[in-house]
């Protein structure tokens, strides 16, 4: 088959062609075959990172905004139009998707059911449209060895879900949602999806004045149990993931952030069945950093996968920008490495090009930039961990709990009376003399030094 995209195969150049990304058309930091060892396991960079292309953005996103029409120019368009009602168009896009992954050297992809094919008049018709595209995807996967990182189901685009899918007050809509997920799980099983994601698009509420929140949460928890039951029944063993996000589209999303979602899982005894899929821009909207969310998920043993994108510090909504922040990528990759990578997850570009980047080649540049910044962050974080940079800081800062009264407390040997007796023996001055500076300015400068030195030595090596 002749080439569909007018773009060369993207290879690792390591800065060899200079600093201009637009001219070089290659990776500076993403070297797919270079090997790295984490926790005694040696794998290639490609197998650690597991980058994934998101069908909904890369193939379907037209870059419409509330003030204007879509700007995207895509080679599969007919007369400049992406006909989302056409099955012919839907099938054609699969060819472009696989060539796109091949040229980038990306091995994984992710999709919602509704990304792939038009809906019909009944669920049966919708499923039959979907299955035709899935047939083609399955065949392409066999031919190319590309893998499905995760699939999911859109319980938020169709108007029937205006008040939720699994938390809707309307039983027929709930039944539709369950039937839809059933089919989606069958696709996960068929395509050997490593994980299965639930993002609760409309699972939240606008006002307490018409919402029975307890009943809605009970329903969604039961919905998840039924989903697991069905996965077990058909022998689908992929990892279930919940994706936290606050305040968009509903005013109060039930899965606001990592800690809220963990509380939900524990309340309903679901934490053995689920891990979390985190997203950079969602973290910002929740008032956190991406690395904060990654840290709390990792420490709970629930870091499953990452949607690699970022937001804008000035914008209060989800803009799904391709990642370009080396500082953030480094700190997120620190958590990733501490987690031993993401065995059943990866780095999925839930990211879209800016509205003014309307050329098809921008899809390549955007993914290349995202892969390079995360590969760079990975290299820096590997070195930080090799040097125990943060580990030493943590260890020293809490050293007073390694001996004396601190150790007694940690070993359950100190009561409040013991603390009182201990403190009554000391002056306030003596107590404050044990308090040390946090040295955050020096630590942050050292982190920057890691970035300069690791990346400087990698570039143009
Ligand atoms: C929405 C979002 C979704 C999920 C999958 O903000 O992140 O694309 O990743 O439904
Ligand atoms: Co996402």
Write the layout of secondary structure elements.
Layout: E1 11-12, H1 21-24, E2 26-27, E3 35-38, E4 41-44, H2 45-49, E5 51-54, H3 55-58, H4 87-104, E6 108-112, H5 113-116, H6 123-144, E7 147-152, H7 171-190, E8 195-198, E9 204-205, H8 213-234, E10 239-242, E11 252-253, H9 258-267, E12 274-279, H10 280-285, H11 290-299, E13 303-307, H12 326-338, E14 347-349, H13 360-386, H14 389-397, H15 404-410, H16 416-424, H17 428-432, H18 440-458
Parallel strand pairs: 1-2, 5-6, 5-14, 6-7, 7-8, 8-10, 10-12, 12-13, 13-14
Antiparallel strand pairs: 3-4, 9-11
Helix pairs in contact: 4-6, 6-7, 7-8, 11-12, 12-13, 13-18
What report would you give on this structure?
The chain is of the alpha/beta class. It has 2 domains: 28-386, Alpha-Beta Barrel (TIM Barrel); 390-459, no CATH class. Helices cover 46% and strands 11% of the residues. It is built from 18 helices and 14 strands. It has helices spanning 21-24, 45-49, 55-58, 87-104, 113-116, 123-144, 171-190, 213-234, 258-267, 280-285, 290-299, 326-338, 360-386, 389-397, 404-410, 416-424, 428-432, 440-458, and strands at 11-12, 26-27, 35-38, 41-44, 51-54, 108-112, 147-152, 195-198, 204-205, 239-242, 252-253, 274-279, 303-307, 347-349. An 8-stranded parallel beta barrel has the order 5-6-7-8-10-12-13-14, surrounded by 4 helices. α12 links the parallel β13 (303-307) and β14. α4 (87-104) packs parallel to α6 (123-144) and α12 packs across α13 (360-386). The longest helix has 27 residues, at 360-386. It starts with 10 loop residues before the first strand and ends with a helix. Cobalt (II) ion binds next to loops. Cobalt (II) ion (CO) binds at residues 199, 243, 279, 307, 350.
